[in-house]
Write a structure and sequence with these properties.
Length: 447
């Protein structure tokens, strides 16, 4: 599939892999606080050590290069690079400078997310994303990083999955900071998106030549029922999961049904000019896709998830449904005529992988990836401009509230020894990339 310019990559995020939470003046983040709170993460796991990437980064760059990918998506930890008074933390910045420089030397394109959920705790203490001021603090941080790391980055992403930050963080409390009220979620979303708009401006001012975008998680919602109320429930699910983020970004407004039907009385406070800031043109849109949900009406204004029997699932319990990725990409293109070029910035699956005789046999992941590559290819054939695809994840890591039990990596991590072992899916991906490279060479060189 895919034209020669198509970019293949792997992805990670700072808090999930770095560890070293006290090193070099890093400040506490909301995920340090949340995971230290009893009952919030599986087994009380936290990112304190994670994959020790902060000290093992050079070895990890070798791993990435060895896979033969074109690109690597990573995130910067805001609490590492900025002191509480807003001044740069030179030691934290040096870590990313070294990492990005080495990646560049190895010919790997660097896609950098500014906010993959690790908000400095001192900002949460002042209201976090419920405080409008946090959007301006994010812009200060974006300006600092774009200024300091300019020339070392091939693509900037402001936020990872604002839906998760707003809804899981403030709407149902499954993620840090653990608050649970839909009115908080809608206000937090608005401030996150404002932060995105202001951050985009800051990046464009300080690193004008580098493409910049944002990453949204999207979900496919269908129903196995023919009852109009259930069909409507599935529509509302997609509205809540996808359009709550995409409509403000691409059309400059929130879906009215969200505040009128789903969560009556929960409209956020929006000030004049806010939507223009949010709707600025994007150089690209990152899409994270994992699964489909089966919905029925909850008998009132909302929907409830009714898991289907007999479908293929992963260790997360998520249904494997590649068709959903194609469906959503086609739908976004139809609904949003100004849809920018897309990167699939995350897709992958968790399985209960173990090293046996030096090998990790993970056939479901190989099959999962192949079927999702095909879905992307089908969407491209239908006219959606997709420029690249990043597997989530390079290696097993701290899967948020699920701790270390859920293994999403192409590379297995033994958390006792920190040994990295390429799973069979990594070997298959490497072979796939080699073949693609060979196919892109002129025949005279390959025969
Ligand atoms: C996404 C997150 C990523 C990872 C995957 C499994 O929602 O962006 O950090 O946890 O899910």
């Amino acid at each position: 599939m895919a034209s020669p310019g198509f970019l293949w990559g792997v992805a990670t995020a700072s808090y999930q892999i770095e560890g070293a939470i006290h090193a070099d003046g890093r400040l506490p983040s909301i995920w340090d606080t949340f995971s230290a709170t009893p009952g919030k993460t599986l087994g009380g796991d936290s990112g304190e050590h994670a994959c020790e990437h902060y000290t093992r980064w050079a070895e990890d760059v070798d791993l990435i290069a060895d896979l033969g990918v074109d690109g690597y998506r990573l995130s910067i930890a805001w609490p590492r690079v900025m002191h509480a008074d807003g001044t740069p933390n030179a030691a934290g910045l040096d870590f990313y400078r070294r990492l990005l420089t080495r990646l560049g030397e190895r010919g790997i394109r660097r896609f950098v997310t500014l906010y993959h959920w690790d908000l400095p705790q001192h900002l949460e203490d002042r209201g976090g994303w419920l405080n409008r001021d946090t959007a301006w603090r994010f812009a200060d941080y974006a300006a600092l990083v774009a200024r300091e790391l300019r020339g070392l980055v091939d693509g900037w992403m402001t936020l990872n999955e604002p839906w998760c930050s707003a809804f899981l963080g403030y709407g149902n409390g499954h993620h840090a900071p653990g608050l649970a009220d839909p009115r908080y979620a809608t206000q937090a979303m608005h401030h996150l998106l404002l932060g995105h708009g202001l951050g985009l401006q800051a990046i464009r001012e300080h690193d004008p030549g580098t493409p910049a975008g944002i990453v949204a998680n999207v979900g496919r919602g269908t129903t196995d029922s023919s009852d109009p109320a259930d069909i409507e429930a599935a529509r509302l699910y997609e509205l809540q999961h996808n359009d709550w983020v995409l409509q403000p970004l691409l059309a400059g407004r929130y879906p009215a049904d969200l505040f009128e039907r789903l969560w009556p009385g929960s409209a956020p406070l929006v000030l004049p000019g806010d939507m223009d800031l949010i709707r600025q043109p994007l150089d690209f849109l990152g899409i994270n896709y994992y699964f489909r949900s089966n919905l029925r009406s909850d008998g009132a204004t909302g929907f409830r998830d009714v898991p289907l029997d007999g479908v293929e699932r992963t260790q997360m319990g998520w249904e494997v449904y590649p068709q959903g990725l194609e469906d959503l990409l086609r739908r976004f293109k139809a609904v949003y005529p100004n849809l920018p070029p897309v990167y699939i910035t995350e897709n992958g699956m968790a399985s209960d992988d173990a090293v046996v005789d030096g090998r990790v046999d993970d056939p479901q992941r190989q099959s999962y990836l192949k079927r999702h590559f095909a879905a992307v290819s089908a969407a491209m054939d239908a006219g959606v401009e997709v420029r690249g695809y990043f597997v989530w994840s390079l290696m097993d890591n701290f899967e948020w509230a699920f701790g270390y039990e859920r293994r999403f990596g192409l590379v297995h991590v033994d958390y006792t020894t920190q040994a990295r072992t390429l799973k069979d899916s990594a070997l298959a991906f490497r072979t796939f990339l080699q073949q693609r490279r060979a196919a892109a060479l002129p025949a005279a060189l390959t025969t």
